[in-house]
Design a protein that fits this description.
Chain B: Keywords: Signal. The complex is a heterodimer of chains A (407) and B (143). With 407 residues, chain A is mostly helical. Chain A contains 18 helices and no strands. Chain B is an all-alpha fold and 143 residues long. Chain B has one domain: Four Helix Bundle (Hemerythrin (Met), subunit A), CATH 1.20.120. The radius of gyration of chain B is 18 Å and the shape is elongated. Classes of the chains: A mainly alpha (407), B mainly alpha (143). Chains A and B meet through helix 5 and helix 13 of A and helix 2 and helix 3 of B.
Chain lengths: 407, 143
Amino acid sequence: MKKVFAVTLGVLTAFGGFVDIGDLVANALVGSRFGMSLAWVVVVGVVGICLFAEMSGRIAAVSGRPVFDLVRERLGPRTGLVNLVASFFINVLTLAAEIGGAALALELATGVNYLLWVPGVALVAWLVMWRVKFTTMERVFGLAGLALIVFAVALWQLGPDWAELGRQLTNPPPDEGAPTYWYYAIALLGGAMTPYEVFFFSSGGVEEHWSRRDLAVERANVLVGFPLGGFLSLAIAGCAATVFLPVQAQVDTLSQMLLPAGLGAGQIGLVLVIFGVFAATFGATLETALSSGYTISQYFGWQWGKFVRPRQAARFHAVVLAGVIVATALILTTIDPIKVTEYSLVFSAAALPLTYLPVLMIANDPDYMGQKVNGRFSNALGTVYMVLLVVVAAAAIPLMIATKAGQ
Amino acid sequence: MRRIPVCLSLTLLLSGCVSPAWDDHDYALKAAASAEAAASGVEMARLAVRDGDRLMSPYVKTLLTEVSEDLSGIAGQFGGVQPPSRASDEVREELLELLSQAEDDVDGLLIELRRAGIARPAQAAARLEEIAGRLRATGERLR
């Protein structure tokens, strides 16, 4: 019974914690412009993140070390440094977007300008990372993120033409050009497979002292929780496709992205969805900030993590604090958090092979994994994904320039 | 080597400026894009106003404020593009007039909302629908 409870709680946490500002923005944008014609990318992204998160969780459980800890050792300091610089840059950009997202959710609830909320969000996030236990922190915000289920309820309540949504699956709007379509496909994939997720997941495994006995729970979290999170992403896109596509309205702001939830599920639905967005973005703020500390500390071999007292991991906490300060300063320049999110998605997509190739290599290395190396199926699928991610990485920046960032 | 930072700074500075219209066709395309972006914002406002009683007041206020700022930005950006001929002058006047109407309407609704709430949401939504339709038609005609 205790095990069933642990699995259920883990699955719900993974489900509620799946959607962050990147998923929200990408799915709402894509739904309003392309209907459901890019839903296939969400499926590809969810399969990809399940595949690589399972590998990184297995690496943490079997070797007792997170992925980035092994990157330098396995790939050498130079390649590891390239990986570190790219990951840290994207992490801080994503962190800025998440802090902005949480502040925007507070603005929607109170009417007070989001810039006034930004320092408060950053301060509370830092205090939570400093004081709250890892497991409590992860579960509270993961479970609170479940409020985003309102999008699925709202979609049902909006009474969409299901046949039309089905037709859109294979028919992109004719007035959108192919480069723009592919640009958004890449952004959507970047949102579903954001690099920090893997660093956080594997480091979290070490924080929670996973061992081989926890592998079943870890797999259930990933293989059930993440696809349910993908279902939420599709519901967000479905809402946008139902409300905005027929009137040719394109979403630019968080308030507009949440409008279908209010129209479908009323005031209570809107309150819940704003709460869900706050929980999801605040939770992701913690994850991205911690990931910044994890990657740098693990590369340089410093003591890291919340499983030791802050005094024992002073450099780790200093990096986390520095990351939060830089990201907060970026958002306080009044740069649009939604634009920051859009750019972070594309840069994430460009860096995907740097994140996932080491995972695939280490998960195949018997020196680290013993008998728990990848099976044939995981390897075959992993190789197909690596080819796909290399193509995506090569196309991301040129497409961003060619389409003027999807205009 | 010293010229590189200067060239880079100049490029960044110029990239922040509004791009000029090379001819009437280019100007019309810019006008169409502005009209379509404005129509999108007005539609957002319409949806929020139509069902405003089902939404929270701070939320509707934030949404309408963003739409108003967007419309102001679109008008400012399009107004900054110099029309290359007299024919383009007409396009400019027509679109700026429409944008101004849209902005005035949304601002008016914001004032109502901050006082005692929007008195006649159905009528306000109908008016916004009409403006959005005209903006879309203008955009389609100029493409």
